[in-house]
Amino acid sequence: MDWDKLKTFHAAADAGSLTGASDILGLSQSAVSRQISALEAELDIKLFHRHARGLLLTEPGRLLFEAAGEIANRVAVAEARVQDSRDKPTGALRVTAPTALGSIWLIPRLKHFQALYPKIRIKLLLADHELDLAGLEADIAIRPWPSTQNELVQRRLMEVEQHLYASPDYLASHGTPETLADLDKGHEFIAYGPKKLAPIPNLNWQLTIGREAGAPSRAATIEANTINAMSKATEAGFGICGLPDYVALENPGLVRILPDIAGPTFDVFVVFPDELKGSRRVAAFREFLVGAAKTWKSEGAE
């Protein structure tokens, strides 16, 4: 089978639509459709049920999708090994991270990495859900939660503290709390959720801190399922929010309140597939992250 057609089929099955495959592959939708039709003609089988909402795999299509996924993984590993056979780390490196961690903490530090390794091209994939590293959807990840997959290698990168923050405008209109008891005196709060779309643990402590165990949580004025959105809502004056310090310390539009009160800490990990543990590009980026985390902590993040 022609690999180009098989790759196009795999992208369409993964995306669930011709439009999605077109975006992934950089091809026109008509070109994607022609390649899939040609593959079906060559195999003399129907790979998809086509309907208004997208593409559904037939049973033969499902079997081919699984096989194509294995081939795609092998091709990706082979490409990585070829790139890493050069004297210096070279080639594309796909890095995934949650939106806030990637845009606020990571991006400002990437310029230094680029200066150290000018032949490595970073492809930054920011998403608040997990990309499948074992399936090589990305080469390396920064995650504020531990991995649960055995075929991944992970290293603890840093511990992040959380504090309470609000905007100057909010504090001007509602007053600045001086004690934990003051939080229950007419203040509004920003929450993290809903739970099924909010994977990072212990980000709603602002709704319960200062209250006895078992007491009802404070009501939230607004709820958002990403830290980035929570930060923007805080900056816009919606209320008080518990935020990780890597967000707030980089944002002069936020004011820490009750500075002696800290929320639960959480760990950030660097994670990559076991197949890439010999990759020079992955090793270079991993060591860069370790150094950047140490520098950030020593510069007063605590």
In short:
The protein has 302 residues and is an alpha/beta fold.
What does this protein structure show overall?
The structure is a single chain. This protein has 302 residues and is an alpha/beta fold. The chain folds into 3 domains: 3-82, Orthogonal Bundle (Arc Repressor Mutant, subunit A); 90-157 and 267-301, Periplasmic binding protein-like II (D-Maltodextrin-Binding Protein, domain 2, 3-Layer(aba) Sandwich), CATH 3.40.190.10; 162-264, 3-Layer(aba) Sandwich (D-Maltodextrin-Binding Protein, domain 2). It is 40% helix and 22% strand. It is built from 9 helices and 12 strands. The strands form 4 sheets. A 5-stranded mixed beta sheet has the order 4-3-5-12-6. Strands 10-7-11 form a 3-stranded antiparallel beta sheet. It has a two-stranded antiparallel sheet with strand order 1-2. α1 packs across α2.
Tell me the number of structural domains. 3
- Quick one: how many beta strands? 12
Number of helices in the DSSP assignment? 9
CATH top level of the largest domain?
Alpha Beta
Topology:
Blueprint: H1 3-15, H2 18-25, H3 29-43, E1 48-51, E2 54-57, H4 59-83, E3 91-97, H5 99-116, E4 120-126, E5 140-143, E6 152-160, E7 162-166, H6 168-174, E8 190-192, E9 222-224, H7 227-235, E10 241-244, H8 245-248, E11 255-262, E12 266-273, H9 280-301
Parallel strand pairs: 3-4, 3-5, 8-9
Antiparallel strand pairs: 1-2, 5-12, 6-12, 7-10, 7-11
